[in-house]
Amino acid sequence: MRRCGLFRLRSQRCTCLPGSPRLDWLTPSLTPLAAPGLAVLMFLASLFHIRRKEYQALAITLPLDALCVFVAYGRCQLMPL
User: Fold this and answer.
1) Residue 69 is part of which domain span?
2) What is the largest CA-CA distance in the chain?
3) 3 state SS for the chain
4) Domain count, the chain
5) How many Cβ atoms sit within 10 Å of the Cβ of residue 72?
6) Torsion angle defined by CA atoms of residues 61, 9, 34 and 63, in that order, rounded to the nearest 10 degrees
7) In this predicted model, what pLDDT tens digit does every residue of 47-64 receive, in sequence order?
8) pTM score, whole prediction
9) Residue 15's CB: how many other CB atoms inside 10 A?
10) CA–CA gap between residue 65 and residue 8 (Å, rounded)
11) CA angle, residues 21, 25, 29, in degrees to nearest 5
């Protein structure tokens, strides 16, 4: 679980947050990789919650998954870096 948390924090840094001056060259190149990775992670989280019959958690994971897919599509197809 800690690895998943670290992966999510690093991926969110690449997709949402503005980079620091030292990492500005790195952040845009990682966005097309981070967004699909987060989409897969959120899809697996949704399956986990379905399996445990925690349907209230789907109200959070499914919209986040859709948002990750939207960002991945936008960064990879509409406006590739």
Assistant:
1) 2-78
2) 44
3) CHHHHHHHHHHHHHHCCCCCCCCCCCHHHHHHHHHHHHHHHHHHHHHHHHHCCCHHHHHHHHHHHHHHHHHHHHHHHHCCC
4) 1
5) 21
6) 20
7) 999 999 999 988 988 888
8) 0.63
9) 21
10) 12
11) 135
